[in-house]
């Protein structure tokens, strides 16, 4: 026979409805500072920004720059809509509403942190591209090298013109440019993505502060409600 949930069994042993309320408040109090799990996205649901897996895992790709710009624009538009509609003071919300708000803020915080991590990886890829070009500065036509087709597969190729580079401009579009132009492109992309990361990190700091305020308010609400319950005999 399958066993019932321990929480259900515990509440069944409660003598009064007040005891059940106390149990639930005490359980909620114990998990206030635990992070909320990120819910799995439904396949048909539209995410608030392009999925991070669409960012190409190719050195020189600028797809993430557009991803970050979309992300920040979407966040800005959402923020403007919320600020214009006004809001309810946090202290006036009930325990369930504050708990739900805390979960939402924690999920947003996790999302921004993951976005920043993905963009930092692309900054590193730009730096690797710049280093690769510097290695080829002294190369002569006919120089052979191993070219990666994937993370685990390489082919031997012969360098035709060391002064020309084939770079990905983004979304699968490639262009052949001079080494100087390629260097300028990677530097611009690195600077742009770094700026987006700095903006997102400011948002992360603000989200953390908001989460802490919500957690403190929730703690106070729970303690106040527990204090109002009659002492069990």
From TrEMBL:
<dbReference type="InterPro" id="IPR004127">
    <property type="entry name" value="Prefoldin_subunit_alpha"/>
</dbReference>
<dbReference type="GO" id="GO:0005737">
    <property type="term" value="C:cytoplasm"/>
</dbReference>
<dbReference type="GO" id="GO:0016272">
    <property type="term" value="C:prefoldin complex"/>
</dbReference>
<dbReference type="InterPro" id="IPR009548">
    <property type="entry name" value="Prkrip1"/>
</dbReference>
<dbReference type="GO" id="GO:1990113">
    <property type="term" value="P:RNA polymerase I assembly"/>
</dbReference>
<dbReference type="GO" id="GO:0051082">
    <property type="term" value="F:unfolded protein binding"/>
</dbReference>
<dbReference type="InterPro" id="IPR009053">
    <property type="entry name" value="Prefoldin"/>
</dbReference>
<dbReference type="Pfam" id="PF06658">
    <property type="entry name" value="DUF1168"/>
</dbReference>
<dbReference type="GO" id="GO:0003725">
    <property type="term" value="F:double-stranded RNA binding"/>
</dbReference>
<protein>
    <recommendedName>
        <fullName>Prefoldin subunit 5</fullName>
    </recommendedName>
</protein>
<dbReference type="GO" id="GO:1990114">
    <property type="term" value="P:RNA polymerase II core complex assembly"/>
</dbReference>
<comment type="subunit">
    <text>Heterohexamer of two PFD-alpha type and four PFD-beta type subunits.</text>
</comment>
<dbReference type="GO" id="GO:0006457">
    <property type="term" value="P:protein folding"/>
</dbReference>
<comment type="similarity">
    <text>Belongs to the prefoldin subunit alpha family.</text>
</comment>
<dbReference type="GO" id="GO:1990115">
    <property type="term" value="P:RNA polymerase III assembly"/>
</dbReference>
<dbReference type="Pfam" id="PF02996">
    <property type="entry name" value="Prefoldin"/>
</dbReference>
<dbReference type="InterPro" id="IPR011599">
    <property type="entry name" value="PFD_alpha_archaea"/>
</dbReference>
């Amino acid at each position: 026979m399958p066993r019932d949930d321990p929480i259900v069994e515990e509440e069944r042993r409660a003598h009064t409805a007040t005891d059940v309320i106390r149990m639930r408040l005490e359980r909620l109090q114990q998990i206030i500072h635990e992070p909320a799990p990120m819910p799995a996205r439904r396949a048909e649901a539209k995410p608030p920004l392009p999925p991070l897996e669409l960012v190409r895992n190719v050195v020189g790709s600028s797809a993430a720059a557009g991803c970050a710009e979309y992300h920040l624009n979407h966040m800005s538009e959402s923020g403007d809509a919320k600020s214009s509609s006004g809001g309810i003071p946090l202290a006036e919300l009930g325990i369930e509403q504050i708990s739900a708000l805390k979960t939402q803020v924690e999920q947003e915080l996790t999302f921004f942190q993951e976005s920043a991590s993905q963009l930092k990886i692309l900054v590193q890829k730009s730096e690797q591209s710049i280093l690769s070009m510097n290695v080829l500065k002294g190369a002569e036509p006919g120089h052979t090298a191993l070219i990666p087709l994937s993370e685990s597969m390489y082919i031997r190729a012969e360098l035709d013109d060391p002064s020309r580079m084939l770079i990905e401009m983004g979304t699968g579009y490639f262009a052949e440019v001079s080494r100087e132009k390629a260097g300028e492109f990677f530097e611009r992309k690195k600077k742009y993505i770094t700026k987006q990361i700095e903006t997102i990190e400011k948002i992360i700091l603000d989200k953390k502060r908001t989460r802490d305020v919500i957690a403190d308010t929730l703690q106070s609400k729970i303690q106040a409600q527990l204090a109002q319950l009659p002492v069990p005999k």
